[in-house]
Write a structure and sequence with these properties.
With 504 residues, the protein is mostly helical. The strands form two sheets. Strands 4-1-5 form a three-stranded parallel beta sheet, with no helix packed on it. Strands 2-3 form a two-stranded antiparallel ribbon. The C terminus is likely disordered. One of its GO terms (cellular component) is plasma membrane. It is found in: Cell membrane.
Length: 504
């Protein structure tokens, strides 16, 4: 049957959902680890590129602005996720608030984010591995494949194992950061090293040999230009609602896990932005192009003798995020597929382990394909230096659209569905969601202006165009009455006859 949105629904029998069953395991600390683990790699690599556009003060200011955006977002999803406790998460929120097209567009944005983000992280993992083992960067694609195989395998093998691994490596990652902070604090020289960036005649960053430069060498425009990099300090905390159907008590534990995770990340972000560039011999200028900033900090403090040990230690944060975002990638593809927005075969779960193995493998193959296209298009030498930045901005670009759509969904749900059960209510309310939208729009505008980022943005636009064309001509005629769809239809007041066409 077709509804007024131009979509056609099919009913699904018990067998359809039996092939797509999930199991429940996660409690509040598992959810906390999932959220923190997803983000923590951003405190090991990636954020530091912002020194080139804003200097130290620009990075700090951008981080504070982005923290406000994420507070507005996380409080919003902490309210929406227990009210709509479905694996669809962002897509589910937007589907209920804005209909099938709004749900699909939001889900698509999140899909790009969660397929590309593991690719970004594995490029940073590879940089650390190359530095530790002295490997030629030409062999990087082999390292990518090895890490994908290992961690896709762990995620497929079972939910309980996946969450236990996530908790352990997240705790280890935080311990590594705390150890670095304690090591760096006694020797830090903030003025000499953190403030060693000036502006050259061409407007680009230059090193100040004696340091003690301006906090804001590029002015307020530098703060705004640094917003896309500051996002990396918090990117993917919003993935937590994807675990709703695998949480023991999502209405109680989901808000707690989200907010505890956000508090943890804010503390860590302040410490790493302050201490990493303040280590003598490192500095903001060097970090502005470094693929392994934390390892550089350890080497400056303890010397090159322990490079292998400290490199392995520094890898933990990257591995934590890689593992947890592969989890999110699988659930995100699974939820859109189960509801028919993507081909339904993608949502079949493993008979024994009840994990969405087809979705995870498919997402990993797409991520690897994007990486290899960039690798061979640029050539191994240029790609090894540029691929992380290109992929990072593809992920951030998609994420900003996702945040805008989720914040709008929150506002619409508050206004149009005030009566649905809300176990948690955002203390920031609609103003917090409005701030999220404004900051996300500004971040997007600065991404588009930078020619170095525009290549990635164009490829995301192509991705969007192809997927929207698929949904317009194929997907919208094959939607399934999944839990998210049934909830949205019920609360929209529409009535569908029981004699719908069965799902295949």
């Amino acid at each position: 049957m077709q509804d007024s949105s131009g979509v056609t629904y099919k009913t699904a029998d018990a067998g359809y959902f039996e092939k797509r069953g999930l199991s429940r395991y996660a409690g509040v600390w598992s959810l906390w680890a999932l959220g923190v683990g997803a983000v923590i790699s951003g405190h090991f690599s990636g954020w530091n590129f912002g020194f080139a556009t804003g200097g130290w003060g620009g990075m700090l200011g951008a981080g504070m602005i982005i923290a406000v955006m994420y507070l507005g977002l996380t409080f919003s999803i902490a309210e929406m996720s227990p009210a709509l406790p479905h694996t669809g998460a962002a897509y589910s929120f937007a589907r209920t608030a804005m209909g099938p097209w709004g749900g699909f567009i939001t889900g698509l944005c999140e899909n790009v984010e969660y397929v590309i983000t593991p690719a970004v992280i594995v490029t940073f993992i590879t940089a650390y591995v190359n530095a530790i083992l002295g490997l030629d960067p030409a062999y990087s694609p082999i390292v990518w494949v090895i890490f994908y195989l290992i961690f896709i395998g762990l995620n497929i093998y079972g939910l309980e194992l996946s969450f236990k691994v996530t908790l352990v490596i997240t705790v280890i990652s935080l311990a590594v950061l705390v150890f670095f902070w304690i090591s760096a604090f006694p020797s830090m020289d903030f003025g000499r090293w953190a403030l060693n960036i000036g502006v050259g005649p061409d407007g680009a960053a230059v090193e100040l040999p004696e340091g003690n430069g301006s906090w804001f060498p590029f002015g307020f425009s530098g703060v705004l230009a640094t917003l896309p990099f500051a996002v990396w300090l918090f990117l993917a905390i919003e993935q937590l609602p994807l675990a709703a159907e695998e949480s023991v008590d999502p209405k109680r534990d989901m808000p707690r896990g989200i907010l505890l995770g956000m508090m943890t990340l804010m503390i860590s972000a302040v410490m790493i932005v302050l201490l990493n560039p303040s280590v003598p011999g490192v500095g903001s200028f060097h970090l502005s192009t470094s693929l392994e900033p934390l390892l550089d900090g350890f080497k400056a403090i303890y010397g090159d003798g322990g490079v292998v040990l400290f490199g392995l230690v520094a890898l933990t944060g990257l591995i934590a995020s890689f593992h947890t975002i592969l989890y999110a990638q699988g659930r995100q593809v699974y939820s859109l597929s189960r509801a028919g927005y993507f081909p339904t075969f993608l949502s079949v779960t493993h008979r024994t382990y009840k994990t969405p193995h087809v979705a995870m493998i498919s997402g990993a193959l797409v991520g690897l394909a994007v990486m290899l296209i960039i690798w061979f298009a640029l050539g191994a030498t240029d790609a090894s230096a540029a691929i992380g930045s290109i992929l990072l901005n593809m992920a951030v670009f998609a994420a900003m659209f996702s945040y805008i759509m989720q914040a709008i969904s929150f506002i619409m749900l508050r206004r149009n569905m005030p009566g649905i059960e809300r176990p948690f209510r955002s203390p920031l309310g609609i103003p917090g969601a409005v701030l999220t939208v404004i900051i996300a729009v500004v971040t997007l505008s600065y991404q588009v202006q930078d020619p170095n980022f525009f290549k990635g943005v164009v490829w995301v636009a192509v991705w969007f165009a192809v997927a929207i064309a698929y949904f317009a001509f194929v997907g919208r005629h094959k939607l399934i009455l999944s839990p998210e769809e049934e909830f949205a239809i019920e609360h929209s007041g529409k009535k569908f006859p029981s004699a719908l066409k069965p799902a295949e």
